[in-house]
Known about the structure:
By secondary structure, this protein is an alpha+beta fold. The chain has 6 helices and 3 strands.
Amino acid sequence: MDLHWYLSTLRRRWLVIAATFVVAIIAAQFTTQTLAPLGESNVPPTYTASTLLASDGQSIGDLPGTTRALATYTTIAQVAQRAADELGYKGDPLQLAKEITAVPDTETPFLTITSSAPQPKKAERT
């Protein structure tokens, strides 16, 4: 079986090969139009952005454990208002605070702050 044999087979069977190709294209088109993509839902995507903060290990005020205190402070109204002012956020600052989660690491002086938003740039900016 050499190249000449393959070419002669293609020449003799070109009609079958072309018909098979056309049927495959039509079947693929029909399948992609009638079936919903896997994982598709009516829920819009949510993007997240995270940052890791390190504390100096000292307590803040009367709250022991700096990272726990910082995590608590991220949800109070004054901090939310200052963050909204800094970002130029026009809505309710407490709504902005709801988009943020702060998780302290009890073993280390690190605090992970994560922001969620429907657009990637907004999640990053928040």
